[in-house]
Amino acid sequence: QKEDIEVTLLPAGHCPGSVMFLFEGGNGTVLYTGDFRLAKGEAARMELLHSGTGVKDIQSVYLDTTFCDPKFYHIPSREECLNGILELVRSWTSLSRNHVVWLNCKAAYGYEYLFINLSEELGIKVHVNKLDMFRNMPEILYHITTDRCTQIHACRHPRDDDCFRGNRLPCGMTCQNGAPLHIISIKPSTMWFGERIK
Hints:
Elements: E1 5-11, E2 19-25, E3 28-34, E4 50-51, E5 54-55, E6 60-63, H1 78-93, E7 99-103, H2 112-122, E8 126-127, H3 138-141, E9 144-145, E10 152-153, H4 160-165, E11 175-176, E12 179-180, E13 182-186, H5 191-194
Parallel strand pairs: 3-6, 7-10, 7-13, 8-9, 8-10
Antiparallel strand pairs: 1-2, 2-3, 4-5, 11-12
Main location: nucleus
InterPro entries: DRMBL, RibonucZ/Hydroxyglut_hydro
Keywords: DNA damage, DNA recombination, DNA repair, Endonuclease, Exonuclease, Hydrolase, Nuclease, Nucleus
């Protein structure tokens, strides 16, 4: 039996280009989320989820999320996390030019919000291995650099943790102006909150 179905792609906010699928047909409406990250109020601003003055009647939602588990009782908001990281990075980098931060980011995409906000707030560009993957995201290009002489790094290496334990950054940098670097590592990770009681 044939049926016409309208499929709408909605921004998922997980990483650049990620989408949720809204299926609408004679037998009802279904939303498949995939991995997604939406701030409070963001769904309310998605016009395509609304019909007239109300929200569309969605019969089924297929929720694809790692965090649908009671152990993730409280995950801080993106803003709370950013403020905590900002405070730590600001206090560390203000000690000297040789105090640097390594953002231990395990995925290639999804940290753009963090990079942009750190750069804007602190006036420090974030070092990345290469700019290629960000070429289609012009809003971030002003905030990242391939110049290693910066205090915030998000560079990557196959043996990242070994580099850090050897007091060098994944890009190989160990000193600046002849003085050794003082490196702290920040691992932006939601999984951390599921591994702890409080």
